[in-house]
């Protein structure tokens, strides 16, 4: 069995905090953390001055994109069911689960309803045995409250989390922007921001009543955070996520009809962005994810309302999230809770920490390295980033999946 | 003297007075640039009324009117404007049925560019489509209406109509009534009229009012009668039938009851208030015939006349660089 000893690292663990030390990998597993004597056969890697942290677990991507994940230090992804074909059948789920191996582990989020149509329950238990780690409503909410309740009840029986999209379709369908000055000036179909809180309020009540675990993939408004904050206090088993774009950009980024800034949910008003930053700091937000959705010119080089939503976010997830650390809002170990430990927990994975016995999914990171995001030179399958030409900091030097250098 | 009557354009020479390559919207134009276009249009009003209307300044230039959405009067107006300036005018009808929505827009733009158009006029059903094309071609692009976004020449012709009939745009109380939410005419007019220091009131049922109207420096009203008090200009917008299907208003007769411009309602405005409509009108829905056809009050046919003059001015100004006009090349 091969072993690697990382020496003189700045160890960053969501549980263990930040410390100087070594980390020993044996085979595909973390064997020791702290001050360690090198075993005779170990390959010693000196990482002085660098951060050694858990590899990222990106919860809720729309494409398996190995190049982008490797660049971004992502070892595992939770794959949304909105694939072609939809992840609602064990054969399709099983194929998706192995589609990134060995370097990228794909954890399918199976469709909650057949074809994601929001009508009939999919074969949730069979899909779970085929490798699904959670079920999801997809890009849209389940409009029928009765169907959503059944999905939650059924998922609770199987101890699976339901990953929900928080937008009331009655308000949000057809809208491409949040209601406000930007949408009014550009003449874009818009939905009021409360479309999100309406969906959250309904699903929180259903989760509270059924006792099912519920994760809102992206929450982006002040009203939404207030509801989740209060529900957590009541002990409702709810978690939520956000993307760096919703933390760093407001709907002003949509001016000039920039389709790379067309996202779902849409970029919000500045006051909602400020509320999102506060919600990251106070722990209301559990997960930062990329929402990775690479889209080529055929989907993006269109008039704004005709373009598809989504951004290529995997390779910029870590660097943009590090902004929160540089701005003093989060410590580095807290950030890795949002990027690795919490997503692992939601997916029921033993991972996301620097802890003996866990898989050696690791990154060596220089959090200071400056670089410029360039849409034309992305490792992702498409360069649709709203952060084009933004100077940023923090680069993954090495990514290990199960003790193997990717 | 009102601020918008100030004309730095009178002192500035050549392209510095209008430094824009395209006309994609009123947004981004300075008040004096709008005034410059209106001043340029005045000469064409007079020329169009004379017997010999042709001018040769655009001779040898190709003007393509690319209309991705059906239009009769705007297309005709741009065609006449181009022909009166001597341009070779070609119309491309590519209504949504034949060119599937958005799909080949960039390809179409590249094709038009390869045909060496000298100026392209575009109408499209999607907000932002004209800007998208403007970024891909080498010649000036004129927006003839994009989605709910802008229809700048309509706003210019409306401002010219108001200025000629009321002496100035500045200080006028202009009431815009109808489907503000889906109206590019309303958006461009709000931007142009507020830039020229008019007091703008917008009137619609709340289902047809865009968000954040106060941020655009206009006063929103749901009560038409209240908004009409002391109005100098009443601008009615067309109610489109698909808004009934979308559930924005219950019926045309209910809309007429609350927002139809009747002679009784018009009496609340100033005695000499001007009535405007971008056309085509739904008589008996948003406007009564007796008001629309009022010989002194209605400026509706004059708006059509001003439309040709304004479009001639825009075509002239935007092609000055490529024509090598002194001070513009």
From TrEMBL, chain B:
Q: In which domain of life is the source organism classified?
A: Bacteria
| UniProt EC number | 2.1.3.2
Keyword Ribosomal protein among record annotations? no
Q: Taking every annotated instance into account, which residue ranges of this chain make up the domain Aspartate/ornithine carbamoyltransferase carbamoyl-P binding?
A: 21-163
Instruction: State any single GO MF term.
Output: amino acid binding
PROSITE patterns per UniProt: CARBAMOYLTRANSFERASE
Q: What's the catalysed reaction?
A: carbamoyl phosphate + L-aspartate = N-carbamoyl-L-aspartate + phosphate + H(+)
| Keywords, in A-Z order | Pyrimidine biosynthesis, Transferase
Q: Tell me the route in metabolism or biology where this protein functions.
A: Pyrimidine metabolism; UMP biosynthesis via de novo pathway; (S)-dihydroorotate from bicarbonate: step 2/3
Task: Enumerate the spans annotated as Aspartate/ornithine carbamoyltransferase Asp/Orn-binding domain.
Answer: 171-317
Q: Which GO terms describe its biological process?
A: 'de novo' pyrimidine nucleobase biosynthetic process; 'de novo' UMP biosynthetic process; amino acid metabolic process
Look up the record and report any one GO term of the cellular component aspect. Answer: cytosol
Give the binding site residues for carbamoyl phosphate. 73-74, 123, 151, 154, 279-280
Q: Where does L-aspartate bind?
A: 101, 184, 238
Q: What class of enzyme is it?
A: transferase
> InterPro entries in the record, alphabetically?
Asp/Orn_carbamoyltranf_P-bd (IPR006132), Asp/Orn_carbamoylTrfase (IPR006130), Asp/Orn_carbamoylTrfase_sf (IPR036901), Asp_carbamoyltransf (IPR002082), Asp_carbamoyltransf_Asp/Orn-bd (IPR006131)
Please report which protein family the annotation says this sequence is part of: Belongs to the aspartate/ornithine carbamoyltransferase superfamily. ATCase family.
Record text on subunit structure and interactions: Heterododecamer (2C3:3R2) of six catalytic PyrB chains organized as two trimers (C3), and six regulatory PyrI chains organized as three dimers (R2).
- Function noted in UniProt: Reversibly catalyzes the transfer of the carbamoyl group from carbamoyl phosphate (CP) to the N(epsilon) atom of ornithine (ORN) to produce L-citrulline.
| Name used for this protein in its record | Aspartate carbamoyltransferase
The gene behind this protein is pyrB
């Amino acid at each position: 069995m091969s072993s690697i000893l990382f020496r003189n690292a700045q160890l960053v663990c969501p549980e263990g905090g930040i410390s100087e030390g070594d980390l020993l990998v044996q085979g595909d597993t973390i064997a020791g953390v702290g001050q360690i004597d090198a075993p005779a056969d170990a390959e010693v890697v000196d990482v002085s001055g660098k951060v050694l942290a858990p590899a990222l677990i990106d919860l809720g991507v729309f494409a398996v994109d190995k190049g982008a994940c490797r660049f971004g230090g992502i070892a595992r992804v939770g794959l949304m069911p909105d694939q072609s074909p939809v992840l609602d059948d064990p054969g399709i789920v099983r194929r998706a689960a192995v589609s990134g191996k060995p370097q990228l582990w794909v954890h399918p989020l199976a469709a909650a309803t057949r074809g994601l149509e929001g009508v009939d329950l999919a074969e949730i238990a069979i899909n779970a045995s085929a490798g699904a780690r959670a079920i999801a409503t997809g890009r849209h909410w389940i409009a029928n409250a009765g169907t959503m309740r059944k999905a939650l009840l059924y998922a609770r029986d199987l101890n699976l989390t339901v990953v929900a999209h928080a937008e009331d379709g009655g308000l949000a369908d057809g809208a491409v922007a949040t209601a406000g000055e930007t949408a009014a000036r550009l003449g874009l179909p818009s939905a009021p921001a409360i479309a999100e809180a309406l969906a959250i309020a309904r699903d929180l009540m259903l989760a509270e009543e059924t006792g099912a675990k519920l994760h809102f993939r992206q929450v982006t408004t002040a009203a939404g955070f207030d509801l989740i904050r209060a529900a957590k206090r009541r002990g409702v088993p709810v978690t939520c996520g956000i993307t760096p774009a919703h933390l760093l950009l407001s709907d002003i980024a949509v001016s000039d009809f920039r389709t790379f800034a067309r996202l779902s949910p849409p970029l919000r008003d500045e006051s909602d962005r400020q509320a999102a930053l506060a919600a990251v700091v106070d722990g209301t937000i559990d997960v930062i994810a990329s929402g990775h959705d690479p889209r080529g010119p055929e989907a993006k080089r269109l008039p704004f309302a005709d373009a598809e939503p989504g951004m290529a976010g995997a390779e910029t997830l870590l660097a943009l999230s590090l902004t929160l650390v540089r701005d003093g809002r989060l410590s580095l170990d807290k950030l890795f809770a949002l990027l690795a430990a919490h997503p692992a927990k939601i997916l029921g994975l033993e991972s996301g920490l620097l802890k003996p016995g866990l898989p050696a999914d690791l990154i060596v990171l220089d959090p200071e390295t400056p670089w410029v995001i360039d849409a034309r030179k992305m490792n992702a399958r498409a360069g649709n980033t709203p952060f084009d030409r933004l100077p940023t900091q923090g680069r993954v030097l090495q990514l290990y999946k199960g003790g193997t250098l990717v | 003297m009102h601020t918008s009557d100030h004309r730095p354009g009178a002192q500035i020479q050549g392209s510095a007075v209008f430094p824009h390559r395209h006309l994609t919207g009123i947004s981004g134009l300075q008040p004096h640039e709008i005034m410059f276009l209106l001043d340029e249009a005045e000469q064409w009003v007079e020329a169009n009324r004379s017997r010999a209307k042709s001018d040769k300044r655009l001779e040898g230039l190709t003007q393509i009117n690319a209309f991705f959405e059906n239009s009769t009067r705007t297309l005709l107006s741009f065609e006449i404007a181009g022909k009166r300036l001597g341009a070779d005018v070609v119309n491309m009808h590519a209504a949504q049925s034949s060119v599937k929505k958005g799909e080949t827009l960039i390809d179409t733009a590249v094709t038009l560019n390869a045909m060496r158009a000298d100026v392209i006029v575009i109408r499209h059903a999607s907000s932002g489509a004209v800007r998208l094309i403007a970024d891909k071609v080498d010649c000036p692009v004129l927006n003839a209406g994009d989605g709910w976004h802008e229809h700048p020449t309509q706003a210019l012709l409306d401002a010219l109509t108001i200025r000629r009939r009321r002496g100035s745009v500045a200080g006028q109380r202009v009431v815009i009534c109808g489907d503000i939410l889906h109206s590019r005419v309303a958006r461009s007019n709000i931007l142009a009229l507020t830039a020229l220091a008019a007091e703008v009131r917008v009137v619609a049922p709340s289902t047809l009012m865009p968000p954040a109207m106060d941020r655009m420096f206009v006063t929103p009203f749901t009560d038409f009668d209240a908004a009409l008090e002391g109005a100098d200009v009443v601008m009615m917008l067309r109610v489109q039938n698909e808004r009934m299907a979308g559930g924005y208003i219950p019926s045309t007769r209910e809309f007429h009851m609350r927002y139809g411009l009747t002679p009784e309602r018009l009496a609340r405005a100033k005695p000499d208030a001007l009535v405007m409509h971008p056309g085509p009108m739904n008589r008996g829905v948003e406007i009564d015939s007796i008001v629309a056809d009022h010989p002194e009050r209605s400026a509706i046919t004059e708006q059509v006349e001003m439309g040709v003059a304004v479009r001639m001015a825009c075509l002239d100004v935007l092609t000055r660089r490529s024509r090598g006009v002194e001070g513009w090349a």
